[in-house]
Amino acid sequence: MDREMISRLSHVDHPINSPLDDESVRRLLHRTVDRGDERVLDLGCGEAAWLLRTLATHPDVTAEGVDNSAQALAKARKEAADLGVEQRLVLHHQDASEFASRQPFDAVLSVGATHAFGGLLPTLDAAHRHIVPGGRVLVGDAYWECEPTAAAREMLGEYEDLATTMDRVVAHGWTPVFGHISTRQELDDFEWCYTGSLATWALDHPEDPDSAEVLAVASTHRSQWLHSYRDSFGFVTLVLRRTSE
Ligand SMILES: C[S@@+](CC[C@H](N)C(=O)[O-])C[C@H]1O[C@@H](n2cnc3c(N)ncnc32)[C@H](O)[C@@H]1O
């Protein structure tokens, strides 16, 4: 089974493809899109869960999403049609770092997709290029809760502790106006949903030629999570404004 399909199967039970629950998402969006007529961009939107929630609750918001996964965007398109918001959503199938728009956006989101830009600060630089003066950026990224194992670093990449992460964001010209640190329950739920959805599909489709492989992917992932990074992995989502324009 290809990686895209595994990725899609893996979060059927967790539509936000990042470790945040529905209430956290609602609160963060409320702090990011509050006027109700904003133009919103999501870089690395996946199935556009953040944008679809925003469009569903704000009838005058318009949105654009960018992702390099055709399957995720197809799912986003279908969901948008089901919700009746497809007229207000434009989806771009391309590398988020190459996205360009003639008109700036009131809010730029990028959650769990900083690798597309080479890290958190380059993601903020990209968002800055797309926002109006006074606009808001909602960005979510990992940090180390404690010293990571070598295996965790190798698997997940290089991050800082939370305080250093914040210091760097502020030194880069941004002021946090809201934030959310994913709780242990949100982090664990995300992993249980990921491995559980894959395992459930595999057990429900024992005759499928991909069944054994999908079960093995779930098992390997669960083992890596518990042995390598559960204690050290943290996730923070920030609502930011430029400190000065
Ligand atoms: C962890 S998912 C997060 C999706 C979404 N932001 C959310 O929170 O539900 C990361 C997304 O980034 C996308 N992505 C990764 N690299 C990308 C790139 N270079 N350009 C565009 N999208 C990218 C993936 O396809 C995936 O949909």
From TrEMBL:
Its EC number is 2.1.1.-. Residues 37-164 form the Methyltransferase domain. Keywords: Methyltransferase, Transferase. GO terms for biological process: methylation. It is an enzyme of class 2 (transferase). GO terms for molecular function: methyltransferase activity. Transmembrane segments: none annotated. SUPFAM superfamilies: S-adenosyl-L-methionine-dependent methyltransferases. PANTHER family: CYCLOPROPANE-FATTY-ACYL-PHOSPHOLIPID SYNTHASE (PTHR43667), FATTY ACID C-METHYL TRANSFERASE (PTHR43667:SF2). This is SAM-dependent methyltransferase.
